[in-house]
Amino acid sequence: MRRRLFGSVRARATLGATLVVAVALLAAGASVLLALRSNLTDQASSEAESSARKVAVSIATGTAPAALELPDGDDTPVQVVDGDGRLLAASEDLERISGTGSSAVRPVTPPVDDDDGGDDDGGDDGGSDRHGGKGKGGDDDSYAYGEIADDAEGGKGSATVDGETRDHRFAALEVKNTRQGDLTVYAGASLSAEQSAVGTALTVMLTGFPVLLGVVGAVTWLVTRRALRPVEGIRSEMSAITASQDLARRVPEPATHDEVARLARTTNETLAALETSVERQRRFVADASHELRSPIASLRTQLEVGAAHPELLDVEGAVADTVRLQELAAGLLLLARLDAGERPGEARVDLATLSGEELSQRPAGRVAVRTHLRPVEVAGSRSQLARVVGNLLDNAQRHARSRVDIAVRAEGPWAVVEVGDDGGGVPEAERERIFERFVRLDDARARDDGGAGLGLAIARDVAVRHGGALTVRSSPAGGALFELRLPVAPAP
């Protein structure tokens, strides 16, 4: 069942589309989540740096750490740490903190130098303020202006305020040359908004992605099913044609202009060509059987009579039947080779020389032959081209009254061989039919020396396979004029 399901084009297309969309959604979702987290993290870093810079400005303009107005720790926890790591100021209600320069949450009072050498009675007041308050010599204007660093360093940590712990993005900004030396301001911005937004987006994706994939799979299944419905019709009809062996049937052609419609049209064209080929083969076999039966039966009869009565043996008749049988077998063999796709070859053949050789092999007959031969070379099989010229000469001499003309010349890219006679000619309605196999007109069939009806069929097949053509029309002498056209061989 599984093999049948995934062997379906529709199932594979649906699965493939769903997987592609799933990968695309995962990539897009991951990109959105990363971009969202990055943007919100950058926003928190900017907020933390802004808060740190506000505190740093206050310190740089002379405000003592103990007198700073720090933001609420719930939103922005702040620490002010000196160079020795001592906490000088911190947001209220801060219970625990990590990711900064100090884990302390309670400020300590830094020692203050007494430039005026104050009296012993006031010394305790100057050193008893736990937030670095104003003791003797500790007025606001006693703090020197500080220098704020251009850039803040970032970091990630957590802070616990009123028992609630949150992740924060911290910014560390250094303030140099203050009364307490070099100080560092740590300010944080909560990442709750970032975590909430990312969590919400992730929930939406986890909920929506399966639904979207289900919709994509269902739509792909339905669309593919509709698109492949004509293919199933073609398949079922082809199966029926195979079972019935009725090549006259045709597959249904959809009224669309897509690939399936072109497939159906091509399939019907293939069926039509196959039907023609099979019908032609059947006729060929039937006609060949009929043509072979006559000379074989005649030859057998003569041999049987000769065996019983040697004095009655017709040797000349037996030889004639044997020659006729041999020529018929040779023609059938050549047609079989042509039908099997035998390549014509690439030999260079001079048609004028070839025509002269074919004429010299024929004894002088009752008709005169006039020649007009000019050298012209073609590429192909010499034996097959000789068979064409010989068949055309035999056909012309068989039907001529007194004269046969043969001419060879070049016309542009074509080599032309014309063979004409002054006989009765070929009726216009029969000029294509005479090139069919085993077809003979009535007047030719009445002749004792008539062929089997294969000569012209062989001649046209050879011409076509050599890239040329063989046609017939009326000759100036009133008979038939056969014209063979072949491509001229390229210059060596």
Structure at a glance:
Helices cover 48% and strands 19% of the residues.
Please give the structural blueprint.
Elements: H1 2-6, H2 9-60, E1 78-81, E2 87-90, E3 94-98, H3 120-128, E4 147-148, E5 153-161, E6 164-178, E7 181-190, H4 192-244, H5 259-308, H6 315-339, E8 347-350, H7 351-360, E9 368-373, E10 377-380, H8 382-399, E11 403-411, E12 414-421, H9 442-445, H10 455-465, E13 469-474, E14 480-487
Parallel strand pairs: 9-11
Antiparallel strand pairs: 1-2, 1-7, 3-5, 4-6, 5-6, 6-7, 8-10, 11-12, 12-14, 13-14
Helix pairs in contact: 2-4, 5-6, 6-10, 7-8, 8-10
User: Structural class of the secondary structure composition?
Assistant: alpha+beta
Shape type: rod-shaped
Nearest-integer average pLDDT: 81
Listing every helix as H and every strand as E from the N terminus to the C terminus, the arrangement reads HHEEEHEEEEHHHEHEEHEEHHEE
Which oligomeric state applies?
A: single chain
Describe the overall structure.
This protein is an alpha+beta fold and 492 residues long. It has three domains: 49-192, no CATH class; 259-339, Helix Hairpins (Orthogonal Bundle), CATH 1.10.287; 347-487, Heat Shock Protein 90 (2-Layer Sandwich), CATH 3.30.565.10. It has helices at 2-6, 9-60, 120-128, 192-244, 259-308, 315-339, 351-360, 382-399, 442-445, 455-465, and strands spanning 78-81, 87-90, 94-98, 147-148, 153-161, 164-178, 181-190, 347-350, 368-373, 377-380, 403-411, 414-421, 469-474, 480-487. Strands 1, 2, 3, 4, 5, 6 and 7 form a seven-stranded antiparallel β-sheet that branches. Strands 9-11-12-14-13 form a five-stranded mixed β-sheet. Strand 1 (78-81) and strand 2 (87-90) form a beta hairpin.
